[in-house]
Design brief:
By secondary structure, the protein is of the alpha/beta class. The chain has nine helices and 33 strands. The structure holds (2S,3S,4S,5R)-3,4,5-trihydroxy-6-oxo-oxane-2-carboxylic acid (GCB).
């Protein structure tokens, strides 16, 4: 935007700068940013609330960005004798500040329900370690739509609130007084991913880390290193170098395994490899072994900590390193209920996963969108299998090609960021979507894409069951296209009798592992009563007892991730005195207190342990 991003030079016309728009969209993703040479742009950013998008559109509702392109045209000259594009009614320096990373809703009471545009600005100085190096601005995530400008130059746009993106800024960054401006718009849209209707808080803002990345001219942008599909002793993968002019040599080493391989990256930028390894200690929740991996070129060494494990299915079994496992899980939203708002850092990740460990979990469902990289890396480190999901939730516009492209893009960005994480065992492409021809087409497309990008993990989606003639039926056509048949069911909360639950009958049409991706009910921590009184801890405890007794008997059952670890905020949940803006299905309250159901679930997982030992 041409005005708000140029506060230091108010009198100047900034149109010319905007001509220099570098690209409309974000560029090829740089991975493993946590181990790179970076300069953090986290911290406090000044912000301007702009509900009418005055900084983006002129009084004819034309985006300034586009006007700059028309500036020389007859159109512009004929119709804009009066140039009102020089906006002076703003001042970042006098504006308040927000923490980045973070959502705006939790930082200022008047932003709690805000959905619209907020402009962020961060000034910084930076001198590269080497003048010939290249520079990139990287965003862990911005919810939902980001327009990014540096020193008055439009870098590009990104859509999708839970995945990373970056722009090259070589030649734009100066040693002093850079100003990075981001227009963040979190309005929901019918045709977006997610769509307008969800059961979570639509947190707006620059919700994840922002980094300035410095790289040599030809640099390691991405790589993949995994046990090859179908093998427990062959590691395969690739390295991608950005901007390779001629051939380049790359060394890949895993010192602890005595591996040192010389690879040749051709001008195409990619080298593939495959080699045997011996005596690997496989990654598992009980033994989360990570190997230090080094990738080096003549100009750079990049390290990572990578675990090796296999994850497959055989009939009804899920096999981790060839051995049957039961997924003792819990669902998690990306929220720290104690601080309020989005979980954003390592400490938040540790808090949530420590709670899950205490419950006895070996697995978490990170619902309903890709969570930040800190939690996935923490899961690698402390040993927790992960279900990662994209926000294809409820009533997505399945007939819309743009919506599909958007979902594909989010899935691609998530897999690109996380494909080296041993903890991730399942890519989920959807949650509770209503079956139809168009929906199946949409989800099959995504499942195929997940397998094309990564053939070493399982693909699933949270489906639903239906009830006919006294039988619970799971026969969704999508079950044929998924490796794990997962479904949500809310016996005793959204219908169904708790008393009869353990004796319920099931007809599941697939000979595959079955996972109950959600069940649960609400309780206000500290509210006590009988097992028949909703919202009491006793009701929730009884609901867990009866559901678990039922789940145990479901044919092919191989895991569950009850809804949910902790109470979370949702604008749909407004019952005064009980919900007050919180979905109360957590087994932990919004102030960190374990409810009775927490211990019921913990006991169940101890029993599972004895069975699977
Ligand atoms: C569901 C959804 C989840 C909701 C939950 C509920 O089935 O998948 O996002 O929050 O039910 O509490 O109703």
């Amino acid at each position: 935007m041409g005005h708000i991003n140029k506060p230091e030079h108010k009198g100047l016309t900034i149109c010319i700068m905007l001509f220099l728009s570098l690209s409309a969209m974000s560029q090829a993703l740089i991975t493993n940013t946590l181990n790179r040479q970076t300069f953090s742009l986290n911290g406090t950013w000044n912000y301007i609330i702009d509900p009418y998008e005055t900084g983006y559109y002129n009084y004819r509702y034309e985006p300034y960005d586009q006007l700059k392109q028309k500036n020389n045209s007859a159109f512009y000259n004929n119709y804009h004798s009066d140039d009102r594009s020089e906006l002076v009614e703003y001042d970042f320096d006098k504006s308040p500040a927000l923490r980045v990373p973070g959502d705006w809703n939790s930082q200022d009471d008047k932003l709690l329900y805000y959905e619209g545009t907020i402009w962020y600005r961060r000034n910084f100085d930076y001198t590269p370690a080497d003048a010939s190096n290249r520079l990139f601005i990287y965003f862990g995530a911005v919810n939902y739509r980001a327009e990014v400008y540096l020193n008055g130059i439009k870098l590009g746009t990104h859509k999708g609130g839970f995945t990373p993106f970056n722009f090259e800024v070589t030649g734009i960054v100066k040693p002093k007084n850079n100003y990075l401006v981001v227009k963040v718009d979190n309005r929901r849209g019918r045709e977006e991913v997610p769509t307008i209707n969800t059961d979570w808080w639509n947190y707006g803002g620059i919700t994840r880390d922002v980094l300035l990345i410095e790289e040599p001219s030809a640099f390691i942008r991405d790589y993949c290193l995994q046990l090859k599909q179908g093998s427990a002793e062959v590691i395969s993968g690739y390295v991608i170098l950005d901007n390779v002019v001629r051939e380049e040599k790359v060394t890949l080493s895993i010192p602890e395994l005595n591996i040192k391989k010389e690879l040749t990256v051709t001008a195409g930028g990619r080298a593939e490899f495959e080699f045997k390894v011996k005596n690997v200690i496989y990654w598992s929740p009980g033994s989360p072994k990570l190997y230090n991996v080094k990738i080096s070129t003549g100009y750079q060494t990049l390290e990572d900590q990578i675990g090796f494990r296999t994850i497959t299915t055989s009939g009804p079994d899920i096999l981790l390193n060839g051995k049957p496992v039961f997924l003792k899980g819990i669902s998690i939203h990306e929220e720290n209920p104690l601080r309020r708002g989005r979980a954003v850092n390592e400490a938040d990740a540790l808090l949530l996963l420590t709670w899950a460990k205490e419950l006895g979990c070996n697995y978490v469902r990170l619902a309903h969108y890709p969570h930040n990289e800190h939690i996935v890396r923490m899961a690698d480190k402390i040993g927790m299998m992960v279900w990662e999901e994209i926000p294809v939730y409820w009533t997505i516009d399945f007939t819309n090609e743009m919506t599909l492209q958007n979902a594909r893009n989010q899935l691609t960005e998530a897999i690109t960021r996380d494909r080296n994480r041993a903890s991730i065992i399942i890519w989920s492409v959807a949650n509770e979507t209503p079956p139809s021809y168009e929906r199946n087409r949409f989800l099959i497309n995504l499942a195929d894409l997940a397998r094309t990008l990564d053939d070493t993990r399982l693909v699933s989606a949270a489906l639903e069951k239906h009830f006919r003639d006294g039988i619970n039926i799971v026969d969704d056509e999508m079950g044929n296209h998924l490796d794990i048949v997962a479904f949500n069911q809310y016996t005793g909360w959204y219908g169904g009798s708790l008393e009869d639950a353990p004796d319920s009958k099931w007809a599941i049409s697939f000979n595959k592992p079955v996972v109950i991706s959600e069940f649960g009910g609400g309780a206000l921590q500290g509210l006590h009563g009988t097992i028949n009184e909703r919202w009491t801890e006793e009701y929730q405890e009884y609901l867990y007892e009866q559901n678990l007794a039922m789940i145990e008997k479901i044919p092919n059952i191989r895991g569950t991730s009850p809804w949910i670890l902790a109470d979370f905020r949702s604008p749909k949940r407004l019952l005064p005195g009980v919900q007050d803006g919180w979905n109360r299905k957590g087994v932990i309250s919004d102030n960190g207190i374990r409810k009775k159901a927490f211990f019921t679930l913990k006991k169940f997982y101890e029993k599972i342990d004895r069975k699977y030992e």
